[in-house]
Amino acid sequence: MKIKLFISLILLTHISIAQTDGWHLSTTKNTDYTGIVTANGRIGILPSSELFKTAQIILNNVYDKESPLGVSKILKGINFQDLQISIDGELLTDSTISNWNQTLNMKEASFTTRFTYKDKATISYTMYALRNVQYSGYLDISIEAHTDINIQATAGMNTPSEYHQPISTFRVLKDLETTMPILQTVARSRENKHLVAASGTFIWHDINSSRIHQRPELKHEIIDDYNHQLSFSKNIKKGTALAFAWSAAICTTQDFEDPQTESERFVIFNLLTPKEDLLNQHKKLWQDLWEGDIVIEGNLQDQLDVRLALYHLYAFSRGDSNLSIAPMGLSSQNYNGHIFWDTELWMFPPLLVLNQDIARSLVNYRSDRIQKAKQKAINFGYKGAMFPWESDDTGEEATPAWALTGTFEHHITADVAIAFWNYYRVTKNKKWLTERGYPMLKEVADYWVSRVTHNTDDTYSIKNVVGANEFAPNVTDNAFTNGAASTAINFAILASQELQRPFPKEWQEIASNIRILKFKDGTTKEHETYNGERIKQADVNLLTYPLNIINDPETVVKDLKYYEPKLAKEGPAMGKSIFAVIYARLGDSENAYRLYKESYAPNKRPPFGALAESATSNNPYFATGAGGMLQTVLFGFGGLKITELGIEQSNPILPKAWKSLRIKGIGIAKKEYSIEH
Q: Over 60: is that where the pLDDT of 1 sits?
């Protein structure tokens, strides 16, 4: 095997559109359909198989109570992108068109639908969640006439039934000779926490859309309190095309004092910015994201799978937001859109090596909520900071009370600290360490010191927890919890030394003596009363990767062989990715690749391969699973490791199914690693 190291600061160049280039996913089937969300880290727009329809819009970090006595739930936004088109009086539907196909362009984060209508027209439309104008979407439409036709285009704005007091209006704003037609809905969220405003307008590319005498006449119709629409008609001559767009924006009181007016401003900006300029800005931002990329030669399907995973992590996050990523990202309201350990342990590591700006947002999300974590520690009788198992915009515990995870799954606090020190390891940003990193690590170490129980043999136990294996609640000395706590305290010591700060001697004593239990044959025991039961996901094996606590090959192999058969079939996708990483680091590419494929392939849903949480569920897109499979590629096959020296590579190994693997844009220096057979 040849290993080459390149330094590359060159931006990704344009790749011509082709269905075999590793950037595009296409389908001609709209049954058994799971769409791929277009998202920009702020809003997620989920397309539908129905023509011109949007299934739903998800708003990042915008929550209201799911019910009067329920916990918080991420908001489904006002659906601002519900269109329909008629040609010569006939509505375009699945039954009236042919040659339907959809293509996701991962490189440019665009989603295009194409079809023909009889012998009269060819129609295409492309959906964007604009990366540059983050509260807005853009639907770009083209109708090519094969004969003289008349079209009627209608854009609807639909308010979810759970909202209250919607106000639906159409106004034409004017400044001198510039007119700006705005369709708008303003409504209260489920339990009245937020005012939500959506605004939209048509844009015609070949005319000045702001001049009232040039654009088609617009007609407004209120269907009912929750639905209204704006329409226009236009004749198109044979051999010509009509190019137009529908652009809309959505804002809430989570981010704006006046969301109604702000949503109008975003739409006006999109209306009066030339299409080429607006979309080129979006594409340039995605080009910048793809400086961090994974290129697989020799297996197109694996390349597409990896790119789709990375596309979703990029689409669900922003480097300028200080927001985190929920398990389903911006694709659905599953898990109430809350933030779990899924971010720090599963999604954060790939993003840390590929995009430090996004990684910084993820860790800053936690430090922005440290005061709530300190309050929680006090409330439960501990010191330091104790993070919620499920977090929302407030930083308070958001897990439903019936779920024991919210009260007892405490390893989340260690997971946060581990992510913080790893961020510093990669970036060496001492200003960040001083202002955010060290204060967090110190509070976490103080928490674990107050959380442990001193045993008579001078070891320390952590009692009454739910570990990573959530099938075993309220146990003592869970392997991963104990290992993560020990690691977090050790990282706090390193941070103290880095900044030349004193630290309590008990940190070192406790970190070195937290119990890791064993069976008689040396296999690591998951918890004090564990006796071979099924496990939900990897737990003990996390002590090998990513914690590197158990690293002697004999014990590593024992743990692999003991726990792999115990993984539940209904367990989440990322469980087997840990086993795959470990096998790759042992030099066993066959088992690594087997487990890599098993970690996600059974979870793919047609027609694009969106990942469900498990092989037996249907709840895509599971961003946590994407993080797991990417870790196998980067830290398993790619041989990357995060150490005190930063990002290093040792002993990469390729599956037989791949000819080569290139990992681009790694770390601050944007290194490129190339591995070949």
A: no
Query: 344, 390, 613, 672: which one is catalytic?
Result: 613
The 10 Å Cβ neighbour count of residue 183 is: 25
Based on the number of CB atoms within 10 Å of its own CB, is 417 exposed (0-12), middle (13-18) or buried (19 or more)? Answer: buried
Alpha helices in 380-504 (DSSP H): 404-408, 411-427, 430-432, 438-451, 479-498
**What pLDDT, on the 0 to 100 scale, is given for residue 5?**
40
**How many other CB atoms are there within 10 angstroms of residue 557's CB atom?**
16
Sheet holding 54-65, edge to edge: 38-39, 43-47, 54-65, 72-76
Secondary structure (H, E, C), 173-184: EEECCEEEEEEE
Q: What angle do CA 80, 58, 142 make, to 5 degrees?
A: 40
Per-residue tokens: 20: 């075999």
**Helix (H/G/I), strand (E/B), else coil: 212:** coil
Instruction: Take residue 107 and report the two structure tokens written for it.
Output: 């490189």
Q: Catalytic annotation on 276?
A: no
Phi, psi of 185 (to 5 degrees): -130, 135
Q: Read off the pLDDT of residues 135-183 as tens digits, 9 standing for 90 and up.
A: 999 999 999 999 999 999 999 999 999 999 999 999 999 998 889 999 9
Q: In this model, does residue 11 exceed pLDDT 70?
A: no
Query: How far is residue 99's CA from residue 282's CA, in Å, rounded to a whole number?
Result: 29
pLDDT digits (tens, 9 = 90+) for 394-443: 999 999 999 999 999 999 999 999 999 999 999 999 999 999 999 999 99
The letter for the amino acid at 3 is: I
The candidate with the shortest Cα–Cα distance to 585, out of 564, 561, 558, 557, is 557
**CA–CA distance, 153 with 242 (Å, rounded to integer):** 11
Tokens 């809003």, located at residue? 43
Predicted confidence band at 677 (pLDDT cuts at 50, 70, 90)? confident
Residue 588: partners with Cβ closer than 8 Å, 6 or more residues away: none
The whole model's pTM is what? 0.96
Q: Measuring CA to CA, how many Å separate 615 from each of 494, 541, 576, 620, 622?
A: 40, 21, 12, 11, 12
Predicted local distance difference test score (pLDDT) of residue 212: 63
Pairwise CA distance, residues 159 & 222, whole Å? 12
Q: Which of 620, 629, 554, 636 is nearest to 588 (CA)?
A: 636
From 269, 243, 263, select the one nearest 251 (Cα to Cα). Answer: 263
Instruction: Compute the distance between CA of residue 400 and CA of residue 388 in angstroms, rounded to an integer.
Output: 12
Residue 182: alpha-carbon gap to chain centroid: 31
Q: What is the 8-class DSSP label of residue 544? A: T
Q: What is the per-residue pLDDT across 581-591, written as a single tens digit (0 to 9) for each?
A: 999 999 999 99
- Shortest CA distance to 72 belongs to which of 61, 82, 83, 57? 61
Active site residue 470: yes
Q: Which residue out of 390, 470, 564, 672 is catalytically annotated? A: 470
Helix and strand counts by DSSP (H, E) for the chain: 17, 28
Whether the CB-CB separation of 303 and 24 falls below 8 Å is answered with no
